[in-house]
Amino acid sequence: MTADIKEICRKYGDRLYAAAFNICRRQEDAEDAVQESLLRLYRSDTDFESEEHLKAWLFRVTVNVAKSTCRSFWNRNRTSYEEYMDNLNFEEPSDRTLMDAVLRLPEKYRIVVHLYYYEGYRTREIAQILGLSENTVKTRLSNSRKILKKELEGWEDEPEQKTISKEFPSTASLR
Amino acid sequence: MNRNRKQYQRSFQVLHLSDDFPERLEARLSEEREGKKMNNSAIHGFGRIAAAIAICAVTLGVGGICYAADVGGIRTKIDLWINGEKTEVEVEAVDNYYSWTDENGQGHGFSGVNMDGNGNEIPMSLDELAELTNNDCTLLPANGRIMLYYKNLSEDVTDLISADGRLRVHISDPQNPNTYFDFSEISPDGEYSMSNSDAPMGDAAYIEIDAGSLSAE
Fold first, then answer.
1. Dmax over Cα atoms in chain A, in whole Å?
2. Using the beta-carbon criterion (under 8 Å), do A43 and B10 form an inter-chain contact?
3. Testing the interface with B: which of A118, A142, A149, A175 to mutate, by most B Cβ within 10 A?
4. How far is C-alpha B20 from the geometric centre of its chain's CA atoms?
5. Judgement on whether residues B122 and B149 belong to the same structural domain of the protein
6. Does domain A1-75 have CATH number 1.10.1740?
7. Best mean pLDDT range from A20-29, B49-58, B206-215
8. A53-64 pLDDT, tens per residue?
């Protein structure tokens, strides 16, 4: 199993890290979240039906662990990620601007945006991973797009998927 | 692929794990393999009940010292085995973290989670945490000797510890399936590592601790 974990880390490690960083916005916390997720996989006796099932499980656990980490007392006010971004090799200056704009979105929007645009998950799949209704995911995606459209020059309009729910701020997000 | 997605992926693909991450992961996996669930050196000096609580925190992967302050949560009385005596403590619950103060004014606390098949964390109830803590076995130095505590049992195990600081004991407790305790790296001042299981690990011999006086509670 250890060999499998290493292989899974090689295959998905960077993607899990990107998702965790999207939430934590701190390299150390994001890496801790990925490590904890892989350890939980090692301890888990879950019978995965497919590679997709495994991947979705990993994202769900990583997101949960990352949320717990960044909501802890010690991390609530430690969100400086600009210095870390200075050391990243962005292809274009606009890539940094985009990442910065995404990382300034509310946390509950960020992870939805990331799973949609980076991982290519559909809203229904994101809803399953995050344990939300699909309408909530669509609402968060729609709100995020509006913010990004205002913030980024090159952000294109996309057709909105019609939703019927109205979302109110959760208690957790108000902490 | 639409332009937004393309640029998003180009932007975030610069994020990579550190070069030494695989090495650190391997180290943690080695620890898992060895079954070292607790390194007591980190909590040495806090006394037996603190050790029991730390086992919960380490084994279950959840801590919450930041919530230990008295912030007006719900108070509940529970029974915990402390140094061989069943002791009633009044715990305060805040955000699934339970804390109390002992008669010496020392603060203690615990929390924990179970995981379902989808990796969701489900906070453990106070009863679950109390059961876990009460099924724990600990060592504590006293007057130059090493005492073993399990529920109402207390045994001087100093002479049973091997030269390399190892002690494997089995306590017949029908109420607890995990009563094979493996202590290692035991030092005279009470530091040790411990893991437990529901069966002997490998071919190792376990010393039977007389459970004749074990409380049925």
1. 47
2. no
3. A118
4. 28
5. no
6. yes
7. A20-29
8. 999 999 999 998
User: Are A161 and A143 spatial neighbours (Cβ–Cβ below 8 Å)?
Assistant: no
User: What tens digit of pLDDT does each residue of B42-80 get?
Assistant: 333 233 333 333 333 333 333 322 233 334 567 888 888
Region B107-125: mean pLDDT is 71
B15 and A156 in contact by Cβ < 8 A? Answer: no
- Amino acid identity at A169: P
Measured between beta carbons, the chain B residues lying within 8 angstroms of A5 are 25, 29
What tokens appear for B52 in the block? Answer: 């029991």
- Nearest chain B residue to A159, by CA: B2
Provide ipTM, 2 decimals. Answer: 0.86
φ, ψ of residue A20 to 5 degrees: the values are -65, -40
- For the cut 80, the answer to whether the pLDDT of residue A5 exceeds it is yes
Same domain flag for B170 and B105: no
Indicate which of A8, A89, A98, A130 best probes the interface with B, i.e. most B CBs within 10 Å of its own CB.
Answer: A98
A74: nearest CB among B2, B14, B66: B66
CA-to-CA separations, A69 to A173, B40, B102, in angstroms, rounded: 14, 24, 29
Nearest to A158 among B2, B9, B25 (CB): B2
pLDDT at A12: 96
pLDDT for residue B1: 58
Beta strand B167-171 pairing with B207-209: parallel
Mean pLDDT, chain A, rounded, equals: 83
Q: What class is the A93-165 domain? A: mainly alpha
Q: Which of B102, B134, B166 is the last residue of a domain?
A: B134
Select the residue of B25, B115, B119 nearest A9 (Cβ to Cβ). B25
Short-list A20, A72, A115, CA closest to B97: A72
The predicted structure's pLDDT at residue A37: 92
Planar angle of CA A100, A106, A112, nearest 5 degrees = 90
Structural domain span for residue B91? 38-134
Distance CA B34, CA B36 (A): 6
Q: Cα dihedral angle (A65, A69, A71, A77), rounded to 10 degrees?
A: -150
Q: Enumerate the β-bridge partners of residue B155.
A: B148
The answer to whether the Cβ–Cβ distance between A118 and B9 falls below 8 Å is yes
Q: How many angstroms separate the most distant Cα atoms in chain B?
A: 74
